[in-house]
Structures are given as structure tokens and as C-alpha cells.
Design a protein that fits this description.
alpha+beta, two-stranded antiparallel ribbon, 3 helices, 34% strand
Length: 93
Amino acid sequence: MSFASLLTAMTAAACRGDGGAVAACFTPDGVYHDCFYGAFAGADIARMVEDYFHRDARDFRWDLHDVVDNGSLGYARYVFSYESKLPGCEGQR
């Protein structure tokens, strides 16, 4: 699977709340660093997507731009947004 395809699969899975599919996009020692919730590895990646992402928000959008890789290292710019479910911010993007 190409790096671009892997990122597309990971972000689509996160947007639909499929934490297992997100976690499957990582190597066994891979870590997902989230600016709101912190770092998660292994099965905790699935838990973060299912228990935190979709608890606090809905209608996720994750647009990838300028995906590049050299076979062992990859990079992509992205725009990520959602509608909040948090009190006082409900429905705000």
C-alpha cells in the first residue's frame, strides 16, 4: 500500500469512528500524537478514536495535501475539522 493510500485509509477510518482500522495503519511500535488528547500506541489508538474523538465531536473532515514519501519516511499537510459536541460549543466547527 502506498503512503498516500495508507493516510487516506487512516483518516477515513478516523472520520467514521473505526478505531481498529486506524490502529491497523500503524506499526506495532507506532504512536499517534494528538494535540488535544496526547499520545496513544497500539490498541489505545483505537480507544482514543472511539472513546474521545467521537465522544467530543462529529462530522469530521480530514483533507490531505502534498503527500510525499521516499519509501521509508513520509510527510503530508492536512486540514482537520469537526463539529463540537462539548457544552458551550455544540455544533461549532
